[in-house]
Amino acid sequence: MRRYRGALASAAVICCLLFMGLVVQAAPANTDETSVLAEYEDYYDRFMSIENRGGIAGGGFRVVEDQIFPLDPDNEDSILMVPAFDGKYNRLALFIVDVDGRILYRTEQLETNYCVRGRMRQPVQSLAAVSFQDLNRDGRMDIILITACVNESGSYAGETYKVGDVLFQNQTGNGFYRDYRISEKINRFGMNKSADSIAAFVRDGDSTEFLYTATTLQELLRNRFRVISEQCYLRTFGKLGKLQVTPGTYRIADYDIFMIYLVNEQGDIVSVLQPMGEYDNLYALKGVTCRDIDGDGLKDIVILARYSYEGEGGELLVESDYRIYYQRTGGFEPDTEIRDTYRCSDEDTMEILVEKARAYWGWQSTND
Hints:
With about 375 residues, the protein is of the alpha+beta class. Helices cover about 20% and strands about 35% of the residues. The protein contains 8 helices and 18 strands. It has helices spanning about 1-20, 35-50, 180-190, 195-200, 210-215, 215-220, 340, 350-360, and strands spanning about 60-65, 70, 80-85, 90-95, 105, 125-135, 140-150, 160-170, 175, 225, 235, 240-250, 255-265, 270-275, 280-290, 300-310, 315-330, 330-335. Strand 11 (about 235) and strand 12 (about 240-250) form a beta hairpin. Helix 1 (about 1-20) crosses helix 2. It is elongated and about 75 Å long. The relative contact order is 0.07.
């Protein structure tokens, strides 16, 4: 019977492996479906064969000892959440165990296990945050998970990004279930930076989705997008015409999400820039300028700002960073080279950045 259940689970998961979208556009390996299915069946049998808490490590999983928490901190006999990473595939599993170490519930059906579709091995991962909150207001503690992932290869190799997930506690009190639609929106629209931002979306109904789907400036303002008026400019961008460079923020939980929109004279959004990347919060906008950076005669956009984020020890860190967007025929293209060569400091000004960026492209101008 267990083998039959495992086969059913394997079939379901292989569909997820092959068809679920990427959290980050990593380059998936070319993997034969039959091979992936065989790998998953072996992995799933090993996962299901673990009989108690003491057998997790022997099953090939590394227990994250400092992230084991009781679901009810006020109850000495509370059941525990025990997270563990599979040593071979970097896949995260959760075990819910009682005080005697008996496994009451287990799952490896988690958003972080599908960062790269069609492949068993996932990016190197660590647990960035765990939080227990009643998100659907049914009186039961739900689980918020955030993992920090680093791709081992591809265009984004070495860059850390976060993956958020929510598990809702069911009526039995020992089991949990996921709504993949919620998890997909959390990650697709950048609400995975902290447990507070996930709770604001799932529990309170706040959402950053409109930042990515709005078609007009009026729609942004209607949803409480705050324009940073002192850095708002009207500029002519060649064949793109006259556009208003409109930077601003939307506040969710305690975080200011920073975006820049290029809006035409009719109020329609023609391009969206996301300069804050994987940072948590806009700390201060130091400047936005529209100047030719790569020497092609077209105005490019440079953004210099200070951002805050949570360090590994939970401390608040603040860092200066910049982004460059090159004007192209159909819109704007983010720089993928200069930031790897030059990382700015708190002392850098916009003039210094423009000078260094132009030097990278081998030219300079005194006529801006």
